[in-house]
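Changelog-adjacent note: as of this version, every example in the card shows the full chain rather than a window. The one below runs 213 residues end to end.
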Amino acid sequence: MRKKPNLPARLERCKGMILEDPTAYCGKWLSTFGGKELHLEIGAGKGKFLVETAKENSDIFFVGIEREEGALVIAAEKAIAEDVQNIRFLDVDAVNLPTFFADGELDRIYLNFSDPWPKKKQWKRRLTYRTFLDLYWNALCENGVIFQKTDNMRLFEFSLNEFAAVGYLLKNITFDLHATDLPNIMTEYETRFVEQGMPIYRTEAYKQKTKLI
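Full-length structure tokens:
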């Protein structure tokens, strides 16, 4: 993204929406912020999906991770402008997930249009590579679920294999989300892809009692 004008000042104005030390809330997100469930989106982008989802589910607390500051500030400003209280954003790396969320603390994780890292030597950086899936497994509660959406067929097929190898139970697999009646809130990227006639791939991966690897 292009560097946003007045970015430091804008980030400062969003200080309450972007948490500086998320490790302080590890194991006590819901006791601190309230809510019956804790949901996380990794790669929140400009916040369209997470803000709209939070507005429709006021009894759930949402956390969005976004490393690109230009997108992060737009997401935070959107939440503030729409007075969405049950959401906070983090500028952190997902590899450090165990320092932000205790074992079993998350009910749901969203992976929306993650970077496909197309070269084979980059696959370990994919958010559905098994080392990441292992982190999610620990952070998710029993029967916790990962929702994945992508426009990249190769990433999707790779992800289905990784989910199965680790031991997640796959449900509602579709290779054309918008041809189904599954409930869906679109992201910024998704809106653009649908306008171009591109199919959207989606699945739900549920944590089971036994991890395979």
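Structural remarks: The first helix runs from residue 7 to 13.
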